[in-house]
Amino acid sequence: MLKAFRNIFAVPDLRHKIAFTGLILLLYRLGSAIPSPGVNLDALKKYAEQGGIFGFINLFSGGALSHMAIFGLGIMPYITASIIMELLISVIPKLKQWQEEGEAGRRKITQVTRYTTLVLATMQSVGLVFTLSRTEAPDDPFHRIIDFTWLKGILIVTTLVAGMALLMWLGELITERGIGNGMSLLIFTAIIARIPYEVKVLYDNATSRYGNLIVLVFLAIAVAVIVGVVYLDQGERRIPVQYAKQVRGRRMTMGGSTYIPLKINTSGVIPIIFASSVVFFPVMLSQFITPMKGFAEWISSGAPYFVIYPVLIVFFAYFYTYIVFDPFTQAENLKKYGAFVPGIRPGGPTATYISKVLNRVNLPGSLALAAIAILPMALFYAFKTGTREIPFAGASIMIIVGVALETMKQIEAQLQMRHYQGFLK
């Protein structure tokens, strides 16, 4: 393990990518600490500690929203815009055509996603300013958190939207020039930044009710969840593939055997992020449309949350899996290169067989994903240990472990490409 870490810094290109990624993440945390002007920060911090909808939004910004920082909106408007685009691609032929055009089409879709992100960020910023300008400071009922004027409101909205645009650009820079997926790493960093606060809340609430033993129980559960996440990420079902002998000109190519690896959790942490964004979307709209506030509270807490959130995770696990892995395309590629699944006819029957196996593998994987995501919060509700402050405990662990594993795999690939020994054996 130590040798692998030394190998990372022995490769100049890899060393520069990691340093660049670290610099961007450092800038992100710096921007998350610089507050917007015109806000009563002490009152806002106390308001955020009360949990509720504002605490829900604050989680994915790494606590930046609790002092209305430049990057206070976090990356969730971009994730929400990406979900909207993925759904629209399935129903709008023009977008589907762009997706099939290759790199040029993907650039068009990315551009539309960026504009949608800015629209959502503007809506959320306006809603936040509108809500906080009508909210009394917890320690001073005669003053608002934001003493609203048009100039002050425009300044705060412009700061938050510009910060969102800059954050989106930083995430794309990490993806292009650094290591790992930029947007995932930004969410990873935001959640990691909240861990000390969450641990303190858990410790204070749990020990006051049940003593120090309950903390050990929760730590054991956290370790079990991490093990489960690693198992889901590494587990796979292998479909055997046989290549037939082919005669090309005067040469005969020998057949061989390989396999198609179908991961138990093909979609990784994407269903968690997508499901969180869908639950988060009414919360975002409630900041802009006051009558939706009750519905947003209803969907993001209590019994409805325990039903809606796991169902969304299972749905998005299937949805994203079939986006990234099309059984019919896979079957056509096998047929084109003279390969077949033993005992299955090429073409349509192969596609049906792969789809059937994929569904069987995806069902337990998606259910396990939903169970891991919801288990910690269920325990927090059962033991009454500060659930309002930790609304996505299971999802947080999954995102942290999933992004860490994915980034480690990319570093591993870079090391092995240069004939170095990596982390994985």
Task: Set out the fold topology.
Layout: H1 2-10, H2 12-31, H3 41-49, H4 52-59, H5 76-91, H6 93-99, H7 103-132, E1 136-137, E2 140-144, H8 150-177, H9 182-210, H10 213-234, E3 236-243, E4 246-248, E5 251-253, E6 257-263, H11 270-286, H12 293-299, H13 302-324, H14 327-336, E7 339-340, H15 348-383, H16 393-417
Antiparallel strand pairs: 1-2, 3-6, 3-7, 4-5
Textual characterization of the structure:
By secondary structure, this protein is mainly alpha-helical. The protein has one domain (about 1-415): Preprotein translocase SecY subunit (Orthogonal Bundle). Helices cover about 70% and strands about 5% of the residues. It is built from 16 helices and 7 strands. It has helices at about 1-10, 10-30, 40-50, 50-60, 75-90, 95-100, 105-130, 150-175, 180-210, 215-235, 270-285, 295-300, 300-325, 325-335, 350-385, 395-415, and strands spanning about 135, 140-145, 235-245, 245-250, 250-255, 255-265, 340. Strands 6-3-7 form a 3-stranded antiparallel beta sheet, with helices on both faces. Strands 1-2 form a two-stranded antiparallel sheet. Helix 5 (about 75-90) packs across helix 6, helix 5 crosses helix 7 (about 105-130) and helix 5 (about 75-90) crosses helix 11 (about 270-285). The termini are close together.
- If strands are numbered along the chain, what order do they take across the biggest sheet? 6-3-7
In percent, how helical is the residue content?
Answer: 55-70%
CATH homologous superfamily caption: SecY subunit domain
Beta fraction of the residues? Answer: 5-15%
Structure summary, number of beta strands? 7
Q: What does the radius of gyration come to?
A: 24 Å
| Backbone shape | globular
Classification by helices and strands: mainly alpha
